[in-house]
Every structure is written in structure tokens, then in C-alpha cells.
Amino acid sequence: MNMESIVSLCKRRGFLFQASEIYGGLNGFWDYGPLGVELKRNVKEAWWQDMVQRHDDLSQLPGSPSPFSMTGIDSTIIQHPQIWKCSGHYDLFCDHMQTCRQCKKLVRSDHIPDMLRNADWFQSFVESCCIKRPDGTVEFLSPAAFDWARARKLGRRLAPGLALVRNPELTLSWLAEDLQNDPTLPSRLSMTELLQYMATLQKKQTGFQSPCPHCGGDLTDPREFNLMFKTTVGALGDEDDTAYLRPETAQGIFVNFKNVIDSTRYRLPLGIAQVGKSFRNEITPRNFTFRSREFEQMECEFFCHPDSSAEWYRYWRDRRMQWYRDLGIAGDRLRLREHEPEELSHYSTGTADIEYAFPFLADGEFGELEGIAHRGDFDLRSHMEGKLDEKSRPLQVQLGPDGKPKWRGSGKDLSYRDDLTNEKYIPHVIEPSAGADRATLAFICEAFSEDQAPDEDGKMQTRSVLKFHPRLAPVKAAVFPLVKKDGMPEMAKEIYLALKKEFNVFYDEKAAVGRRYRRQDEIGTPYCITVDGQSLTDGTVTIRDRDTLEQVRIKADDCLATVRQKIGG
Ligand code: ATP
Fold first, then answer.
1. Which of 297, 343, 374 to mutate to test the pocket of ligand 1 (most atoms within 8 A of CB)?
2. Nearest residue to 339 via CA among 379, 373, 302
3. Is it the case that residue 179 has pLDDT exceeding 90?
4. Is the shortest distance between the CB of 281 and ligand 1 below 6 Å?
């Protein structure tokens, strides 16, 4: 699987475009084209149907501790600023970022090692100037480095900002000086240390520098950067009018928990779901839509009794994993990774990530599709009492210098009274939180394949195909007349209109039928229905399966029922 072919197919066939492309694009923003919008809607629709609309409130589902209810809400993107203070996003939703003094680009500190590994200049430098020893240390070839920086001009082209390239003599002299003082140094030098030497012009003044993954230039020290987009509500634009675009949909659910309970007859355990846009001013948006600045989340907050919360956590972790498997990500590119105890927030007794081995990642690396977290009563209590201190145990309200709550809560009682037992408690929460764009991208990557299929002359040709699960496929069926005459188009159009009432279907009468099949394979259409000479005499048509290439004859009148039954879900 090759990411370049996937990106090029997505653009060529109208799945994804760079946002504002005609003005040069805006980094971290993506537009979905005619097929992309259908695919992403189908992903969100499958999530909503499986989580909310088709949920059975009455039965005890396999693996669940008891029957439970599911419902949904749709809250606003801009909410009261106090929400983000009590949720912790105002104080804590920060990344550390560094700026390159040469090319001025910003990079996120924790992304640097990974970006460096993938940088062209780094690979070229390692190939030309280093021999890696099996223990991870490096043998450095100083004359080759000089050559790389100057004579062969590779360095100048690939890493114009690197100190070694700007001034090889001075840069290499620091290493030579240290070697003189400590002859054992070469046997201990790791790649990171070597790179710091190569990125440092003035070691005595600045200490060691780290290289920028883009140009090799030297990076500033890390600074904190809040990821929330600021905006202003109202005309005055004072500091008091500052608001934020939501960085997650979850808080809209917590602050509406009481409204939902009071306005409905739902009892706990209850899940409240929401799908919608979230915004994060990511420092280094990259990897296609994987890390965007505007994206969609599909989140559920599941409220339950504290005593059964551990069991519910396990239920949701396994059920969410199964959802991706059922929709076609079945192989070992999908994995469930339970967080180590030291990775967990203090209040969480369990967190797991569902991860996918995206093709843009190095071999053996996985990217997060969804997190399932046991959040205890942290969120509801923070919105009641004031922001809790995550480090306290048991959790206590975080106090400011004046001894008062640092961020005041709403003061509203968000506890729940069980009307059967009369027990009153603050529910615990299990949060399955998924990204619609990351899921869509994973479904595209997983579906993409190239195989061999016969063309119209029976010759085997390489075929590029998106093997989407039929529920997710943007176009469910295509209808073709074999040729554009003898009443075939009329019959095909009738079938098209009948199917169109229920599904997104495509009619195509242009080009040889083999080419038409191929165009549909490339966008993942699972079924192609063809009206041929025989159709006009006996009222049957062929239906071709994208994956098996099998064609069977069915009655034209049965097309709708057949497609409906095949798509299922
Ligand atoms: P990461 O560590 O990759 O930044 P996260 O742990 O901060 O992700 P959460 O806050 O748990 O992510 O958000 C839940 C889900 O929202 C993620 O699993 C992911 O699918 C999606 N998501 C988060 N940030 C982005 C983004 N910048 N672009 C696209 N999807 C995102």
C-alpha cells in the first residue's frame, strides 16, 4: 500500500482536495469532494445508526453488564468560555512547539524525532556520512560530511539551514575539540547527539542545538502553545468577549447531561452521542487528513454507576474495536492498545486506543483512530464544583493563590437519583471518542488495492480498486446499458430511477463497458448492473460483484431488492 497512490487517487477521483487550493491552500484544512462527502457521511451515518438509532434499549447485549439506553444531542461549536476552564482545556490543552530560526517554521516537539526520520536531508546525511552500529551508536565519517555539505552540494540542496552546511569547518571543529578531550566519545555517540553537533554553530554561546526537520536549521527551545482557536463574541471585541471554537464535542454532552435526564425518561446506564466539528490549532498538521486543524469527531459519553464502570469500560473498548472490524478493517493493521499505568490520567482506571497502521507511518508504527477512556466523575464534578486538580487523590477542586477555586464550576447539581433504589450519585463516564476523518482515511487506505482483472479483450491488466464495505461505499451501484441503442438505455434508466429512490446510484453509457466497470472499481462501487441484448427479450440483467468479479443474471424487477439485501447493514 503506497500513500502517494492513495493521495493521488483521492484527488483525481474527487474524494479529497486541499482546502482553498486555488489560493495555494491552507495548511491543515481539507475539503471533501463529491465522492468524499458521500463516504464520510456514510461513516458518520454508520456510527450514528450503530450507536444510537438502531440500539436496542431492552435487551442485554452480548458482553454488556446490563441493558442500557442510547440517545444523542447536537451542541454548539462556541460555548461558554468557562466550560473550557473547568474542562482543563484552557490550562492544559497545550503542545510544546519550537520555531526554526532559519526557515521560521513551527514544529511540535514530540513530532520532531518522527519527522526527522522521514526527512529527505536526514536520510541522505545518514547514507552519506554515517555507519550505524548494531547497538544504535554511529560511526561518523567526517570527510564524507564535509563532502556532503560542500562538494556534492546535497546538503545545500536538502538542508540549507543546517549548521554543517552553512559552516562545515566551524561545526565540525566542535566535534573535533570534544573528541580530543574525550577519545571514548565516538564509541558512545548516538544519532541524536551527532545531529546536535551538526546543528550547532556556536556551541559555547548557545549549547547544543536541535535541527529543524524541514531545513536542518536550529530550533528555539520548546514553548507552550494552546491549541484552542480564539474568537470574539459580539461587537466590542474586549478580552471579556473572548470565546473558543470547541476542541472536542465531549464537553457539550457533559454540560447537557442534566437537560437530557430532566427532559426525557431515560435512566442510567445511558450513552449520549454527538457528531460534529472540532477545531485544534495543531502546530504541525500533516499526514493528509490525519492531523487537521478542522475535523469531525464522533463521541459518546456513557454515564453509569461507579460500581459497574470498570465492566462498562471493557464492554465499550471491545465493542468499538469490533465496529471497525465489521466495517472491513479486519487484518493486523488494526490493533487495540491498552495504555500503560503511567500513561493514564490520575483519575482514569483504564484507557485504550484503537490504532491503525496508516501507510504514511514507518513500519511497525500505528496512529490513533479512537480513544476509549474511563473518565470517572472528573468531568461532571469539574462542571459542578470547579475544575478539579488531576494530580490530587482523591480528586479535589484546584485552588488559586487566594485559596478559592481556580476556575469556578456552574454550581448546578449534576448528580443522578435512581428512582428505583432512590440512590443518589455522581455518575462515572466511559468515553469512546473517534475521529470521523481519521476513520474515513483508514477506510480508504484499507480498501485501496491493486489486483489483476481481465480487460474487454480478456487480457489481464492491473486494476486499482477500493474495496469498501458496501455500507460505506459512496456509490452503491452503477447501471449501464451495454450499448447505446436498441432500447437498452431506456431500460437501464428505468432501473437507475428505481434504485435512486433509496441509494446513491450512478448511470453511465459512455465508453466500452470494460472501462465503465474499471471506473466504478476505482471509486469502490460494489455492484454494476448491465442491461444487454438478452435483457430486452427476457427482462433479466447482469449484476457484477466488484470483489469476486462474478456476474449473475437477475430479473430487472429484482434489482432494488437484490442491492438492498446485498448492502445489508
Ligand atoms: P493525537 O494524540 O493524535 O493528537 P488525541 O489523543 O489528542 O489525538 P483525542 O483528544 O482523544 O485525540 O480525540 C479523539 C479523536 O479525535 C482521535 O482519536 C482522533 O480520531 C480525532 N482527532 C483528534 N485530533 C485530530 C486532528 N488534529 N485531526 C483529525 N482528527 C483528530
1. 297
2. 373
3. no
4. no
b vs e for 504-530, b when ≥16 Cβ sit within 10 Å of the residue's Cβ? bbbbbbeeebeebbbbbbbbbbbbbbb
Rg for the chain (alpha carbons), in Å? 29
Residues 431 and 372 sit within 8 Å (Cβ to Cβ): yes
Contact 90/386 with Cβ under 8 angstroms? no
Location of C-alpha cell 580530543: 180
Quick one: CA dihedral 182, 187, 191, 192, positive or negative?
negative
Q: Could you give the CA distance from residue 87 to residue 276 in angstroms, rounded to a whole number?
A: 18
Any ligand 1 atom below 6 A from CB of 291: yes
- CA atoms of 348 and 376, how far apart (whole Å): 6
What is the rounded CA–CA span in Å between residue 165 and residue 159?
7
- Among 128-142, 219-233, 511-525, the range scoring the smallest mean pLDDT is 128-142
Predicted confidence at residue 181, as pLDDT, reads 87
pLDDT at position 268 is 98
- Average pLDDT (241-267) is 97
Helix (H/G/I), strand (E/B), else coil: 295: strand
Contact 426, 377 (CB under 8 A): yes
* Distance in angstroms (rounded) separating the CA atoms of residues 291 and 281: 10
Q: Which three cell numbers stand for residue 568?
A: 445489508
pLDDT, one tens digit per residue, over 513-543 is: 999 999 999 999 999 999 999 999 999 999 9
Would you say 292 and 29 are in contact if contact means Cβ atoms under 8 Å apart? yes
Tell the residue number behind the cell numbers 502553545, with chain if given: 225
Q: Which residue owns the Cα nearest ligand 1 atom 4?
A: 291
Which burial class, exposed, middle or buried, applies to 172 when counting CB atoms under 10 A from its CB (0-12, 13-18, 19+)?
Answer: buried
Q: Which residue has the cell 482536495?
A: 17
What whole-number distance in Å separates Cα of residue 508 and Cα of residue 492?
A: 9
Place of cell 471506473: 519
Q: How many CB atoms sit inside 10 A of residue 162's CB?
A: 30
* pLDDT above 90: residue 185: no
Whole-number Å distance, alpha carbon 435 to ligand 1 midpoint, is 6
What grid cell was written down for 54? 438502531
**Residue of the CA atom closest to atom 20 of ligand 1:** 435
- Residue 386 and residue 409 in contact, taking contact as beta carbons nearer than 8 Å: yes
Ligand 1 mean position, distance from CA 267 (Å): 30
Return the best residue to mutate from 295, 356, 369, 430 for the ligand 1 pocket (most ligand atoms within 8 A of CB). 295
Structure confidence at residue 427 (pLDDT) = 98
Instruction: Show the cell assigned to 481.
Output: 446499458
pLDDT value at position 455?
76
Reported as a pLDDT band with limits 50, 70 and 90, residue 110 is: confident
What was the pLDDT predicted at 463?
84
Quick one: which of 339, 260, 253 has its CA closest to 297? 253
Rounded to the nearest 5°, which phi and psi values hold at 182?
-140, 90
Instruction: Determine phi and psi for 505, rounding to 5 degrees.
Output: -125, 155
DSSP state of 211: B
Instruction: Give bridge partners of residue 555 from the DSSP assignment.
Output: 540
Give the residue among 476, 464, 468 at the shortest CA–CA distance from 443: 468
